[in-house]
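Hi again,

Forgot to attach this to my earlier email, sorry! This is the prediction with magnesium ion bound. I've pasted everything inline since the attachment limit keeps bouncing my files.
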Amino acid sequence: MANSKFEYVRAFERPDPLLPNTFIVIRLDGRSFHSFSARHAFTKPNDIRALHLMNAAAAAVVRDLPDIAIAYGVSDEFSFVLRRETTLFERREAKLVTTVCSSFTSWYVFLWPQFFPETPLVPPLPSFDGRAVCYPALGNVRDYLSWRQADCHINNLYNTTFWALVQQGGMTTQEAEEELKGTFAKDKNEILFSRFKINYNNEPEFFKKGSVIFRDYTDVLPSAAAPDSSSPAAAAATAEAQETATTAVPREKSKTQIEKEKKRAKKAQVVVEHVDIIQDAFWEKRPWILG
Ligand code: ATP
Ligand code: ATP
Ligand code: MG
Ligand code: MG
Ligand code: MG
Ligand code: MG
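Structure tokens for the complex follow:
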């Protein structure tokens, strides 16, 4: 089979490795979910079954790929952040994006009957597009996730008000759209409160914050995280840490360090929370996630 006269075509393939030592973010988004959600009778504005299904599919992907440090999802989209030092698929862009995308889609379809037992999945079947973006600094990843969560809040406030006008206010969708044109957040809060007695602050965190999926290490013994300080490995690690602190560019992690973190990641429990990731509190409590 090797060295056939056809093999030269392989040289037309382009290498596509993503920049080393950067956080890789892969974002998926459902194709035409506006009509997909209508076809499968999603509750508006937030179908809780569909959101749980998205989270279950994403959690399965996080479990399958220990190099995913954190994932954030809202509506029909999910972002997966890979550890900065990942060498998964030699960081080849197409391999990473298509693998995450197709395994997410497979889980979504596989798990569908659990979340929609009374709604058969019918064509056009769900599909997701995907893209990868590299972020060089921790601050960039934090800003990326903040951008998605801020978007979640803006869209949810709009959708909550829009559907209150339609479902409780008896407006057509066009009338509701017209009503909300040019309004600010405070106007929408006011419409919700004065016309529908809805205090937006009391809406579920699930809808306001979206979903954050990560590995929780609280149940892992501290000794698994920090080596015994009397061991030679610990002494080496300390020396390395001190050296890192004095250099402007952080040194890459050692192979043993990366292996240790991988083992730990495989053992840890994958959890889903609906919490603020814009402020520092979440990150200060869990420095390991993007560390
Ligand atoms: P595109 O293919 O360009 O992404 P789209 O129709 O998927 O088009 P999006 O901007 O991705 O457009 O918006 C997704 C739409 O899916 C939302 O506007 C909403 O109507 C619907 N949707 C997604 N998840 C839910 C949910 N859990 N409950 C209700 N509706 C949802
Ligand atoms: P990678 O993730 O790198 O693609 P791989 O294990 O999928 O690794 P491939 O080079 O893609 O490796 O080869 C696919 C393998 O799948 C084949 O070597 C063969 O063992 C198996 N396979 C695929 N289709 C069939 C089939 N119809 N019947 C039997 N075996 C199959
Ligand atoms: Mg889109
Ligand atoms: Mg979409
Ligand atoms: Mg979307
Ligand atoms: Mg293969």
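Residues 29 surround magnesium ion (ligand 3) (CB under 6 Å). The longest helix spans residues 138-167.

That should be everything now.

G.
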